[in-house]
């Protein structure tokens, strides 16, 4: 608080004092510090978007907003921190923790986006933004279009198809022969041993389809191939296996035998 000035203070000093107050007021600052971008599983119990601030004023106005999905549209009001008010769509599932951090409950797909924490007092205004990405774990992989026994052939052929449905972002499918990676990722290169197709779903998730395309030889008889799904929402990769059954032109030349030859 400011002290009362003596009544007999000279006018010159009074003028200088008032100028000093104006200068100090002009340099009053607000600083906003938001945390790193966040990821949360769809249906997660809660996620916290960090925001802290410093201000020369004890009671600045603090708000949370959500940037529009379509550029040029107005921001969506999320939470008025100073008044303790959550707006439509966030009532009963938004709260403030750790000074000004936004805690969202029961996170869903519509919560994904960029959130803005703004702090203002009079003409002083600062803001910071943090992105929230919603993750959806894909279904375990399933292998189809595998119809053994397959003929050994020097030409490449579609041996099997692997599908994983419902992930967000897109999962990565890879094919392995034992511990050896033989195809993975997205590629249109003719030399690649597999191709991957991404299908959009109405709920904002994706289906991933990957074909195993190889030239089989007699040495593939009995080999274990598997399709692996990697995704940030999974604690560890998911796998689906097949045992390769190769029909050789001359049975004695097969490197291994399986039950189909006995």
UniProtKB/TrEMBL annotation:
Official protein name in the record: CADM3 protein
Origin: domain of life: Eukaryota
Predominant place of localization: membrane
Single Gene Ontology MF annotation: cell adhesion molecule binding
Subcellular location: Membrane
UniProt cross-references to InterPro entries, sorted A to Z: CD80_C2-set, Cell_adhesion_signaling, Ig-like_dom, Ig-like_dom_sf, Ig-like_fold, Ig/MHC_CS, Ig_sub, Ig_V-set
Gene3D superfamilies named in the record: Immunoglobulins
Keyword Glycoprotein included in the entry's annotation: yes
Domain Ig-like span(s) in chain numbering: 28-133, 141-243
GO cellular component annotations of the record: cell-cell junction; plasma membrane
Protein's membrane topology: Single-pass type I membrane protein
Phylogenetic placement of the source organism: Eukaryota, Metazoa, Chordata, Cephalochordata, Leptocardii
Keyword Membrane: yes
GO biological processes: cell-cell adhesion
Gene expressing this chain: CADM3
TM spans (from-to): 17-35
Keywords from the named record: Disulfide bond, Glycoprotein, Immunoglobulin domain, Membrane, Transmembrane, Transmembrane helix
């Amino acid at each position: 608080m400011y002290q009362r000035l003596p009544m007999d203070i000279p006018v010159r000093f009074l003028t200088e004092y008032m100028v000093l107050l104006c200068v100090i007021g002009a340099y009053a600052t607000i600083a906003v510090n938001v945390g790193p971008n966040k990821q949360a599983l769809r249906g997660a119990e809660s996620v916290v978007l960090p925001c802290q601030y410093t201000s020369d004023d004890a009671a600045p106005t603090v708000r949370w907003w959500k940037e529009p999905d379509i550029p040029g549209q107005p921001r969506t009001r999320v939470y008025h921190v100073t008044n303790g008010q959550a707006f439509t769509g966030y009532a009963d599932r938004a709260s403030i923790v750790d000074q000004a951090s936004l805690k969202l409950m029961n996170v869903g797909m519509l919560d994904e986006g960029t959130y803005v924490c703004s702090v203002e007092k009079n003409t002083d205004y600062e803001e910071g933004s943090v992105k929230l990405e919603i993750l959806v774990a894909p279904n375990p992989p399933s292998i189809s279009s595998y119809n053994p026994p397959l003929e050994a052939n020097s030409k490449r052929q579609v041996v099997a198809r692997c599908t994983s449905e419902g992930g967000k972002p897109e999962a990565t499918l890879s094919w392995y022969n034992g511990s050896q990676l033989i195809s993975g990722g997205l590629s249109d290169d003719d030399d690649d041993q597999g191709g991957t197709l991404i299908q959009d779903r109405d709920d904002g998730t994706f289906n991933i389809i990957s074909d195993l395309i190889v030239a089989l030889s007699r040495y593939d008889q009995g080999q274990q191939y598997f399709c692996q799904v990697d995704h940030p929402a999974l604690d560890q990769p998911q796998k689906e296996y097949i045992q390769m059954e190769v029909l050789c032109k001359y049975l004695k030349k097969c490197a291994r035998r399986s039950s189909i030859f006995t």
